[in-house]
Amino acid sequence: MSEQRFIHQSRKHWSSEPAFIASMAAAAVGLGNLWRFPYIVGENGGGIFVVAYLVALAVVVLPIMMLEVAAGRLTHGNTVATFRQINRFGGYYGWLVVGITIAITSYYLVITGWTLGYAVDASRGELRVFDEFTEGFNSLWFFLIIIVLASMVLIKGLKAIERLSQFLMPILLIVMIYLVFMASQTSGWQPTIDFFMTFDWSRLTSGELWVFAFGQAFYTLAIGQGYLITYGSYIPRKTHLPRACIIVALFQTLIALLAAWMIFPFVYSQGLSPEAGTQLAFATLPKVFAEMSAGRMIAIVFFVLFFAAAFTSTLAGLKVVVSAFAEEFHLSNTKAVLSVALVMMVIGMASALSFTPVNLQIAGEPVLDVVDKIAG
Protein backbone atom coordinates (compact mmCIF):
# COMPACT_ATOMS: atom_id res chain seq x y z
CA MET A 1 0.00 0.00 0.00
CA SER A 2 2.87 2.41 0.82
CA GLU A 3 4.43 1.77 -2.59
CA GLN A 4 1.11 2.46 -4.29
CA ARG A 5 0.70 5.68 -2.27
CA PHE A 6 4.21 6.73 -3.34
CA ILE A 7 3.27 6.21 -7.01
CA HIS A 8 0.12 8.28 -6.53
CA GLN A 9 2.08 11.13 -4.97
CA SER A 10 5.05 11.09 -7.37
CA ARG A 11 3.08 10.48 -10.54
CA LYS A 12 3.04 13.46 -12.89
CA HIS A 13 -0.19 14.85 -14.36
CA TRP A 14 -1.35 16.70 -17.43
CA SER A 15 -1.06 20.41 -16.71
CA SER A 16 -4.79 21.08 -17.24
CA GLU A 17 -8.06 19.66 -18.55
CA PRO A 18 -7.50 21.26 -22.02
CA ALA A 19 -4.02 19.68 -22.08
CA PHE A 20 -5.53 16.25 -21.32
CA ILE A 21 -8.21 16.74 -24.00
CA ALA A 22 -5.62 17.73 -26.62
CA SER A 23 -3.31 14.84 -25.68
CA MET A 24 -6.14 12.29 -25.64
CA ALA A 25 -7.49 13.59 -28.96
CA ALA A 26 -4.01 13.36 -30.47
CA ALA A 27 -3.59 9.84 -29.12
CA ALA A 28 -6.83 8.59 -30.65
CA VAL A 29 -7.03 10.56 -33.90
CA GLY A 30 -4.36 8.58 -35.78
CA LEU A 31 -4.81 6.68 -38.99
CA GLY A 32 -8.06 5.19 -37.70
CA ASN A 33 -9.79 8.41 -38.68
CA LEU A 34 -7.66 9.70 -41.55
CA TRP A 35 -6.91 6.39 -43.27
CA ARG A 36 -9.33 3.74 -42.08
CA PHE A 37 -12.64 5.64 -41.72
CA PRO A 38 -12.85 6.87 -45.36
CA TYR A 39 -12.24 3.47 -46.91
CA ILE A 40 -14.59 1.73 -44.46
CA VAL A 41 -17.29 4.27 -45.37
CA GLY A 42 -16.57 3.66 -49.04
CA GLU A 43 -16.96 -0.10 -48.68
CA ASN A 44 -20.12 0.05 -46.55
CA GLY A 45 -22.63 2.26 -48.30
CA GLY A 46 -21.66 5.84 -47.45
CA GLY A 47 -24.34 7.75 -45.55
CA ILE A 48 -26.06 4.77 -43.96
CA PHE A 49 -22.75 3.57 -42.51
CA VAL A 50 -22.22 6.99 -40.92
CA VAL A 51 -25.66 6.68 -39.26
CA ALA A 52 -24.82 3.24 -37.83
CA TYR A 53 -21.37 4.46 -36.74
CA LEU A 54 -22.80 7.46 -34.86
CA VAL A 55 -25.36 5.25 -33.09
CA ALA A 56 -22.64 2.77 -32.05
CA LEU A 57 -20.41 5.59 -30.85
CA ALA A 58 -23.05 7.34 -28.74
CA VAL A 59 -24.86 4.34 -27.25
CA VAL A 60 -22.02 1.91 -26.48
CA VAL A 61 -18.51 3.09 -27.27
CA LEU A 62 -18.49 6.51 -25.56
CA PRO A 63 -19.62 5.03 -22.21
CA ILE A 64 -16.86 2.41 -22.46
CA MET A 65 -14.36 5.18 -23.17
CA MET A 66 -15.46 6.98 -20.00
CA LEU A 67 -15.14 3.73 -18.04
CA GLU A 68 -11.56 3.13 -19.21
CA VAL A 69 -10.44 6.70 -18.53
CA ALA A 70 -12.14 6.61 -15.12
CA ALA A 71 -10.36 3.35 -14.26
CA GLY A 72 -6.99 4.94 -15.00
CA ARG A 73 -7.91 8.02 -13.00
CA LEU A 74 -9.10 5.92 -10.05
CA THR A 75 -5.98 3.76 -9.78
CA HIS A 76 -3.36 6.32 -10.93
CA GLY A 77 -1.45 3.41 -12.42
CA ASN A 78 -0.35 1.86 -15.68
CA THR A 79 -2.51 -0.67 -17.52
CA VAL A 80 -1.08 -3.65 -15.63
CA ALA A 81 -1.48 -2.01 -12.22
CA THR A 82 -5.04 -0.95 -13.01
CA PHE A 83 -6.20 -4.47 -13.90
CA ARG A 84 -4.26 -5.97 -11.01
CA GLN A 85 -6.50 -4.07 -8.60
CA ILE A 86 -9.54 -5.94 -9.91
CA ASN A 87 -8.32 -9.33 -8.65
CA ARG A 88 -5.13 -11.34 -8.35
CA PHE A 89 -5.32 -12.50 -11.97
CA GLY A 90 -5.99 -9.00 -13.32
CA GLY A 91 -2.29 -8.26 -13.71
CA TYR A 92 -1.94 -11.07 -16.24
CA TYR A 93 -4.74 -9.57 -18.29
CA GLY A 94 -3.06 -6.17 -18.02
CA TRP A 95 0.14 -7.64 -19.47
CA LEU A 96 -1.95 -9.22 -22.24
CA VAL A 97 -3.27 -5.76 -23.16
CA VAL A 98 0.28 -4.36 -23.08
CA GLY A 99 1.46 -7.28 -25.23
CA ILE A 100 -1.23 -6.62 -27.81
CA THR A 101 -0.32 -2.93 -27.78
CA ILE A 102 3.32 -3.86 -28.37
CA ALA A 103 2.30 -5.99 -31.37
CA ILE A 104 0.05 -3.29 -32.82
CA THR A 105 2.54 -0.49 -32.23
CA SER A 106 5.39 -2.52 -33.76
CA TYR A 107 3.77 -2.40 -37.21
CA TYR A 108 2.07 0.96 -36.63
CA LEU A 109 5.61 2.37 -36.43
CA VAL A 110 6.17 1.05 -39.96
CA ILE A 111 2.99 2.66 -41.29
CA THR A 112 3.90 5.92 -39.53
CA GLY A 113 7.23 5.69 -41.31
CA TRP A 114 5.38 5.43 -44.62
CA THR A 115 3.49 8.65 -43.87
CA LEU A 116 6.78 10.42 -43.11
CA GLY A 117 8.31 9.00 -46.29
CA TYR A 118 5.36 10.20 -48.36
CA ALA A 119 5.59 13.66 -46.77
CA VAL A 120 9.31 13.82 -47.63
CA ASP A 121 8.67 12.61 -51.19
CA ALA A 122 5.85 15.12 -51.67
CA SER A 123 8.08 17.97 -50.52
CA ARG A 124 10.67 16.90 -53.12
CA GLY A 125 8.08 16.60 -55.84
CA GLU A 126 8.80 12.86 -56.20
CA LEU A 127 5.56 11.37 -54.90
CA ARG A 128 5.35 7.69 -55.86
CA VAL A 129 2.61 5.11 -55.70
CA PHE A 130 3.00 2.53 -52.94
CA ASP A 131 4.64 -0.24 -54.98
CA GLU A 132 7.35 2.16 -56.17
CA PHE A 133 7.84 3.63 -52.69
CA THR A 134 8.54 0.17 -51.23
CA GLU A 135 10.89 -1.03 -53.98
CA GLY A 136 13.95 -0.20 -51.84
CA PHE A 137 14.45 -0.12 -48.08
CA ASN A 138 12.34 2.96 -47.38
CA SER A 139 10.09 1.01 -45.01
CA LEU A 140 13.08 -0.01 -42.88
CA TRP A 141 14.86 3.37 -42.76
CA PHE A 142 11.74 5.37 -41.96
CA PHE A 143 10.70 2.79 -39.35
CA LEU A 144 14.02 3.35 -37.55
CA ILE A 145 13.72 7.14 -37.88
CA ILE A 146 10.26 7.07 -36.26
CA ILE A 147 11.58 5.02 -33.33
CA VAL A 148 14.31 7.61 -32.74
CA LEU A 149 11.93 10.59 -33.02
CA ALA A 150 9.33 9.00 -30.74
CA SER A 151 11.97 8.08 -28.16
CA MET A 152 13.21 11.67 -28.07
CA VAL A 153 9.71 12.95 -27.29
CA LEU A 154 8.96 10.26 -24.70
CA ILE A 155 12.23 10.87 -22.84
CA LYS A 156 11.08 14.47 -22.37
CA GLY A 157 7.94 13.12 -20.67
CA LEU A 158 4.33 14.29 -20.41
CA LYS A 159 5.14 17.96 -21.03
CA ALA A 160 6.57 17.16 -24.46
CA ILE A 161 3.55 15.03 -25.40
CA GLU A 162 1.01 17.66 -24.35
CA ARG A 163 2.90 20.54 -25.99
CA LEU A 164 3.17 18.61 -29.24
CA SER A 165 -0.53 17.68 -29.04
CA GLN A 166 -1.67 21.22 -28.25
CA PHE A 167 0.37 22.46 -31.21
CA LEU A 168 -0.67 19.79 -33.72
CA MET A 169 -4.40 19.37 -33.03
CA PRO A 170 -5.50 22.91 -34.00
CA ILE A 171 -3.23 22.78 -37.05
CA LEU A 172 -4.66 19.40 -38.03
CA LEU A 173 -8.21 20.76 -37.84
CA ILE A 174 -7.37 23.91 -39.82
CA VAL A 175 -5.53 21.96 -42.53
CA MET A 176 -8.37 19.47 -42.90
CA ILE A 177 -10.95 22.25 -43.25
CA TYR A 178 -8.72 23.82 -45.92
CA LEU A 179 -8.44 20.52 -47.79
CA VAL A 180 -12.21 20.01 -47.62
CA PHE A 181 -12.59 23.49 -49.14
CA MET A 182 -10.14 22.55 -51.92
CA ALA A 183 -12.07 19.30 -52.45
CA SER A 184 -15.34 21.24 -52.73
CA GLN A 185 -13.94 23.00 -55.80
CA THR A 186 -13.52 19.75 -57.72
CA SER A 187 -16.02 17.98 -59.96
CA GLY A 188 -16.20 15.18 -57.40
CA TRP A 189 -17.97 17.32 -54.78
CA GLN A 190 -21.52 16.64 -55.98
CA PRO A 191 -21.03 12.86 -56.26
CA THR A 192 -19.64 12.97 -52.70
CA ILE A 193 -22.75 14.80 -51.48
CA ASP A 194 -24.92 12.18 -53.20
CA PHE A 195 -22.86 9.36 -51.67
CA PHE A 196 -23.24 10.67 -48.13
CA MET A 197 -26.79 11.99 -48.34
CA THR A 198 -28.37 8.91 -49.91
CA PHE A 199 -29.54 6.48 -47.21
CA ASP A 200 -30.47 2.88 -47.89
CA TRP A 201 -32.37 2.37 -44.63
CA SER A 202 -32.88 -1.32 -45.36
CA ARG A 203 -29.18 -1.89 -44.67
CA LEU A 204 -29.72 -1.14 -40.99
CA THR A 205 -30.88 -4.74 -40.67
CA SER A 206 -27.49 -5.95 -41.93
CA GLY A 207 -25.36 -7.53 -39.21
CA GLU A 208 -22.24 -6.91 -41.27
CA LEU A 209 -22.93 -3.15 -41.36
CA TRP A 210 -23.17 -3.03 -37.57
CA VAL A 211 -20.02 -5.12 -37.13
CA PHE A 212 -18.05 -2.62 -39.20
CA ALA A 213 -19.77 0.35 -37.52
CA PHE A 214 -18.94 -0.86 -34.00
CA GLY A 215 -15.45 -1.90 -35.09
CA GLN A 216 -14.73 1.55 -36.48
CA ALA A 217 -16.24 3.25 -33.41
CA PHE A 218 -13.96 1.19 -31.14
CA TYR A 219 -11.04 1.99 -33.43
CA THR A 220 -11.86 5.72 -33.42
CA LEU A 221 -11.80 6.08 -29.63
CA ALA A 222 -8.88 3.64 -29.08
CA ILE A 223 -10.91 1.27 -26.91
CA GLY A 224 -9.17 -1.73 -25.34
CA GLN A 225 -5.54 -0.87 -26.12
CA GLY A 226 -4.54 0.68 -22.82
CA TYR A 227 -4.35 4.21 -24.29
CA LEU A 228 -7.34 5.49 -22.31
CA ILE A 229 -6.32 3.88 -19.03
CA THR A 230 -2.75 5.16 -19.31
CA TYR A 231 -3.65 8.72 -20.33
CA GLY A 232 -6.48 8.72 -17.80
CA SER A 233 -4.03 7.90 -15.02
CA TYR A 234 -2.37 11.29 -15.53
CA ILE A 235 -5.61 13.33 -15.35
CA PRO A 236 -5.42 16.34 -13.00
CA ARG A 237 -7.80 16.12 -10.04
CA LYS A 238 -10.16 18.93 -11.10
CA THR A 239 -10.85 17.52 -14.58
CA HIS A 240 -14.55 16.98 -15.39
CA LEU A 241 -14.16 13.50 -16.86
CA PRO A 242 -17.49 13.08 -18.76
CA ARG A 243 -17.12 16.51 -20.35
CA ALA A 244 -13.52 15.82 -21.37
CA CYS A 245 -14.43 12.43 -22.90
CA ILE A 246 -17.40 13.87 -24.81
CA ILE A 247 -15.21 16.65 -26.26
CA VAL A 248 -12.61 14.10 -27.35
CA ALA A 249 -15.30 11.87 -28.93
CA LEU A 250 -16.83 14.84 -30.78
CA PHE A 251 -13.41 15.90 -32.03
CA GLN A 252 -12.60 12.37 -33.24
CA THR A 253 -15.94 12.14 -35.06
CA LEU A 254 -15.43 15.55 -36.65
CA ILE A 255 -11.96 14.56 -37.88
CA ALA A 256 -13.26 11.25 -39.27
CA LEU A 257 -16.10 12.94 -41.18
CA LEU A 258 -13.81 15.69 -42.46
CA ALA A 259 -11.38 13.02 -43.67
CA ALA A 260 -14.10 11.36 -45.73
CA TRP A 261 -15.33 14.68 -47.17
CA MET A 262 -11.70 15.58 -47.90
CA ILE A 263 -10.75 12.38 -49.73
CA PHE A 264 -13.83 11.32 -51.72
CA PRO A 265 -14.18 14.45 -53.92
CA PHE A 266 -10.59 13.95 -55.09
CA VAL A 267 -11.31 10.27 -55.74
CA TYR A 268 -14.54 10.96 -57.65
CA SER A 269 -13.02 13.82 -59.66
CA GLN A 270 -10.47 11.38 -61.08
CA GLY A 271 -13.08 8.74 -61.91
CA LEU A 272 -11.82 6.36 -59.25
CA SER A 273 -13.86 4.09 -56.99
CA PRO A 274 -14.60 4.93 -53.33
CA GLU A 275 -14.32 1.17 -52.68
CA ALA A 276 -10.56 1.12 -53.25
CA GLY A 277 -10.09 -0.31 -49.76
CA THR A 278 -6.93 -0.02 -47.66
CA GLN A 279 -4.97 1.43 -50.58
CA LEU A 280 -7.30 4.44 -50.86
CA ALA A 281 -4.72 6.83 -49.40
CA PHE A 282 -1.32 5.31 -50.20
CA ALA A 283 -2.04 4.00 -53.71
CA THR A 284 -4.90 6.14 -55.02
CA LEU A 285 -4.20 9.66 -53.82
CA PRO A 286 -0.63 10.05 -55.20
CA LYS A 287 -2.15 9.48 -58.65
CA VAL A 288 -4.87 12.03 -57.88
CA PHE A 289 -2.41 14.69 -56.72
CA ALA A 290 -0.11 14.09 -59.71
CA GLU A 291 -2.92 15.03 -62.10
CA MET A 292 -4.18 18.09 -60.19
CA SER A 293 -3.17 21.69 -60.62
CA ALA A 294 -1.40 22.71 -57.39
CA GLY A 295 -1.31 18.98 -56.68
CA ARG A 296 2.22 19.11 -55.23
CA MET A 297 1.25 21.67 -52.59
CA ILE A 298 -1.89 19.76 -51.64
CA ALA A 299 0.08 16.50 -51.48
CA ILE A 300 2.63 18.04 -49.10
CA VAL A 301 -0.08 19.37 -46.80
CA PHE A 302 -2.04 16.11 -46.93
CA PHE A 303 0.83 13.74 -46.13
CA VAL A 304 2.32 16.02 -43.46
CA LEU A 305 -1.14 15.87 -41.90
CA PHE A 306 -1.13 12.08 -42.21
CA PHE A 307 2.26 11.90 -40.52
CA ALA A 308 1.25 14.20 -37.65
CA ALA A 309 -1.84 12.12 -36.88
CA ALA A 310 0.02 8.81 -37.13
CA PHE A 311 2.93 10.02 -35.00
CA THR A 312 0.77 11.20 -32.09
CA SER A 313 -1.01 7.84 -32.01
CA THR A 314 2.33 6.06 -32.12
CA LEU A 315 3.44 8.09 -29.09
CA ALA A 316 0.30 6.98 -27.23
CA GLY A 317 0.91 3.31 -27.97
CA LEU A 318 4.51 3.58 -26.87
CA LYS A 319 3.50 5.50 -23.73
CA VAL A 320 1.26 2.60 -22.69
CA VAL A 321 4.25 0.25 -22.84
CA VAL A 322 6.76 2.71 -21.35
CA SER A 323 4.47 3.39 -18.39
CA ALA A 324 4.09 -0.34 -17.70
CA PHE A 325 7.83 -1.01 -18.03
CA ALA A 326 8.82 1.94 -15.83
CA GLU A 327 6.41 1.19 -12.99
CA GLU A 328 6.37 -2.61 -13.06
CA PHE A 329 10.15 -3.04 -13.46
CA HIS A 330 11.05 0.07 -11.38
CA LEU A 331 12.95 1.77 -14.21
CA SER A 332 13.58 5.45 -14.75
CA ASN A 333 11.62 7.03 -17.59
CA THR A 334 14.70 7.22 -19.82
CA LYS A 335 15.66 3.57 -19.24
CA ALA A 336 12.06 2.48 -19.85
CA VAL A 337 11.90 4.45 -23.12
CA LEU A 338 15.19 2.99 -24.37
CA SER A 339 14.10 -0.53 -23.37
CA VAL A 340 10.80 -0.17 -25.21
CA ALA A 341 12.58 1.30 -28.25
CA LEU A 342 14.82 -1.78 -28.37
CA VAL A 343 11.83 -4.14 -28.03
CA MET A 344 9.98 -2.31 -30.82
CA MET A 345 13.04 -2.37 -33.04
CA VAL A 346 13.41 -6.14 -32.64
CA ILE A 347 9.72 -6.99 -33.03
CA GLY A 348 8.90 -4.40 -35.70
CA MET A 349 11.90 -5.19 -37.90
CA ALA A 350 10.09 -8.14 -39.49
CA SER A 351 7.10 -5.98 -40.43
CA ALA A 352 9.41 -3.32 -41.86
CA LEU A 353 11.36 -5.85 -43.92
CA SER A 354 8.16 -7.37 -45.35
CA PHE A 355 7.84 -4.29 -47.59
CA THR A 356 11.42 -4.24 -48.86
CA PRO A 357 13.32 -6.37 -51.41
CA VAL A 358 13.75 -8.91 -48.56
CA ASN A 359 9.98 -9.49 -48.89
CA LEU A 360 9.69 -11.21 -45.53
CA GLN A 361 6.49 -13.29 -45.45
CA ILE A 362 4.51 -15.77 -43.39
CA ALA A 363 2.43 -18.30 -45.35
CA GLY A 364 2.73 -16.15 -48.48
CA GLU A 365 1.59 -12.92 -46.78
CA PRO A 366 3.73 -9.94 -45.69
CA VAL A 367 4.60 -10.18 -42.00
CA LEU A 368 3.00 -6.79 -41.35
CA ASP A 369 -0.35 -8.00 -42.73
CA VAL A 370 -0.19 -11.17 -40.64
CA VAL A 371 0.60 -9.28 -37.43
CA ASP A 372 -2.20 -6.83 -38.22
CA LYS A 373 -4.73 -9.64 -38.58
CA ILE A 374 -3.64 -11.43 -35.40
CA ALA A 375 -3.28 -8.32 -33.19
CA GLY A 376 -6.40 -6.67 -34.61
Give a brief rundown of this model:
The chain contains 16 helices and 2 strands.
Q: What would you report as the Rg, rounded to the nearest angstrom?
A: 20 Å
Q: Kindly report the average pLDDT value.
A: 84
Low-confidence stretches: 1-9
What fraction of the residues are assigned to beta strands by DSSP?
under 5%
| Helix vs. strand class | mainly alpha
SS summary, helix count: 16
Describe this protein with a few key phrases.
mainly alpha; two-stranded antiparallel sheet; globular; 16 helices; disordered N terminus; 376 residues
Outline the secondary-structure elements.
Elements (H helix, E strand, L loop, with lengths): L1 H9 L6 H27 L3 H29 L3 H6 L5 H34 L6 H4 L4 H19 L1 H27 L4 H9 L9 H14 L6 H6 L8 H29 L10 H11 L4 H34 L4 H21 L7 E2 L2 E2 H9 L1
Describe the structure.
- With 376 residues, this protein is mainly alpha-helical.
- It is built from 16 helices and two strands.
- Strands 1-2 form a two-stranded antiparallel sheet.
